[in-house]
Amino acid sequence: MPSSPPPTGRAPFGLSPAALRRVQLCALAHLDGRITLEDLAARAGVSRFHFARAFRTSTGETPYGFVQRLRVGKAQQRLRETDLPLGRIAVVCGYSSQSKLTHAIRRATGLTPARYRRAYR
Predict the structure, then answer these.
(1) What does the pLDDT read at residue 9?
(2) Is residue 4 part of a domain?
(3) Helix (H) or strand (E) holding 20
(4) Which of 3, 14, 85, 102 shows its CA 20 to 30 Å from the CA of 72?
(5) Residues 88, 117: Cα–Cα separation, whole Å
(6) CA 112 – CA 98 distance, rounded (Å)
(7) Do residue 68 and residue 53 come from a single domain?
(8) Domain total for the chain?
(9) Domain of 69?
């Protein structure tokens, strides 16, 4: 009976746990700016084409979806914990405008940022 290879901690054709962690830390550190597929792929040490496929295999979501989820989460935290104006929260979370923030929060929660802030304070 052939023996199976030892577990590596990664999904078949996915990113290694170390590469995935480097990508996550890079995204978290740069949420307030532009994060490109090339930047994340460089952190993982692979081409952008391989990265997009391997990231989805490893996490079940696209790199873009991952970054958006982090940004929405950061915005929700700021809405709950601060009195910053919506425009400032948008900038801090990497959105180009307040309307982009509003669209993202509404898509994620069904509420506008102002309603979300009132509901979760």
Answers:
(1) 56
(2) no
(3) helix 17-29
(4) 14
(5) 14
(6) 11
(7) no
(8) 2
(9) 63-121
